[in-house]
Amino acid sequence: MNSLYARHRSVLPDWLALYYDRPIEITHGEGRHVWDADGRRYLDFFGGILTTMTAHALPEVTKAVAEQAGRIVHSSTLYLNRPMVELAERIATLSGIPDARVFFTTSGTEANDAALLLATTYRRSNQILAMRNSYHGRSFSTVGVTGNRAWSPTGLSPLQTLYAHGAVRTRGPFAGLTDERFTEAAVADLEDLLGQTRSGVAALIAEPVQGVGGFTSPPDGLYAAFRRVLDRHGILWISDEVQTGWGRTGDHFWGWQAHAQAGPPDLLTFAKGIGNGMAIGGVVARAEIMNCLDANSISTFGGSPVTMAAGLANLGYLLDHDLQGNARRVGGLLIERIRAAAAGVDTVREVRGRGLMIGIELADPVSGHAAPEAASAVLEAAREGGLLIGKGGGHDTSVLRVAPPLSLTVAEAEEGAAILEQALRSL
């Protein structure tokens, strides 16, 4: 046990997870690569949990942070803040939500927590619809709407949560259906679920592509079909875009746009990639919803001048360099390379995803049950080969998560796929 690991264990919580049998300390990064304390270089296909969205040490972002820090680091939301207003204007326009207002937080957990506060206050109800296999954060309220046992340390909650079918295409009672019939069955189940509620449900919160749950998603259009049901009941739709936002899926700038037939969501939450590592989260909502709070509220650190400067520079780089298009093109190549690499590996049940958001589901080839040991073995083998990836999945799945920065090159995609192939075949 190295000294830093021993110090970590002695002073930090036991439940603070670390990857690898021999945890690594990442000391610096550049582009799509990082280095550990031993000087070893890795190709980074996880980006600090989908957070280093554009690139490590992106000059445009580091310059903006340094310049803003040289002026003022902090003032709070009690004072006018030009970078915060400018970033809010850009996000409001990009969100697709009419008459949008933006509230900044410091994380996706806090963003979802704020969205739940807004929805339940606006609707005067503590009932929330969430999806099975979901993950929305680690706070008391967001754990209460997380449908993933591995990330739910308590069953206590200020909310009454009802879990709907539909987010996982390949498992459960509707798995054998066509996409059209699957959507119809999920909508019928939603109607039945709402028929059993005591009073008006406040909102549905859903990830267009489930992140921690293993990059699983419903057929395109399912949430639009849900939305038509929700609208009849006055129920709000919160789209959790913490992992799917900013073009990562390639096909769309926001994940909700794969379900756009019924219009944009009422609320949208974001975090992770927009700061490229800086602590930014937030909520976008229609003005009447955002303004429904009748008590004082501020955010001490949300909208910090330094993080807002980083977000503005990062968003500008992403748009100017069409990183959404790059995610679509290079992501399409990468998923095909991974599918080819997984061919003939009995433990691989499915390779799925879109853009630079790819999941490799592993299962015991005999029993069909989840194979967490295999997932850990591949994670370790990939690291030994010089590649960092992630893990996820629900209560009965084990999934490897592949989500490189959106500036990934074709050569890097080929290199990473080759390392991943060796790791998978080591099983």
Structure characterization notes:
By secondary structure, the chain is of the alpha/beta class. 37% of the residues lie in helices and 16% in strands. It has helices spanning 3-11, 47-50, 59-71, 82-95, 108-123, 140-143, 179-194, 222-233, 287-290, 305-320, 323-342, 372-384, 410-425; strands at residues 26-30, 33-36, 41-44, 100-105, 127-131, 160-164, 203-206, 236-240, 267-270, 281-286, 348-353, 358-362, 387-388, 390-392, 398-402. Strands 4-10-9-8-7-5-6 form a seven-stranded mixed sheet, sandwiched between helices. The chain has a four-stranded mixed sheet with strand order 1-2-3-13. β11 and β12 form a beta hairpin. α11 runs parallel beside α13 (410-425). It is globular, with a radius of gyration of 21 Å. 53% of the residues are buried. The mean pLDDT is 96.
Please describe the topology of this protein.
Layout lengths: L2 H9 L14 E5 L2 E4 L4 E4 L2 H4 L8 H13 L10 H14 L4 E6 L2 H16 L3 E5 L8 H4 L16 E5 L14 H16 L8 E4 L15 H12 L2 E5 L26 E4 L10 E6 H4 L14 H16 L2 H20 L5 E6 L4 E5 L9 H13 L2 E2 L1 E3 L5 E5 L7 H16 L2
Helix pairs in contact: 3-10, 4-10, 7-8, 11-13, 12-13
Q: What would you say about this model in short?
A:
37% of the residues lie in helices and 16% in strands.
Low-confidence regions: none
Care to count the β-strands? 15
- What is Rg? 21 Å
Tell me, briefly, the overall form. Answer: globular
Mean pLDDT: 96
Strand order of the largest sheet: 4-10-9-8-7-5-6
SSE ordering: HEEEHHHEHEHEHEHEEEHHHEEHEEEH
Strand content: 15-25%
Distance between the termini: 26 Å
What percentage of residues falls in helices of 4 or more residues?
25-40%
The assembly state of the depicted protein chains is single chain
Continuous helix count: 13
Q: Structural class from helices and strands?
A: alpha/beta
Biggest sheet layout: 7 strands, mixed
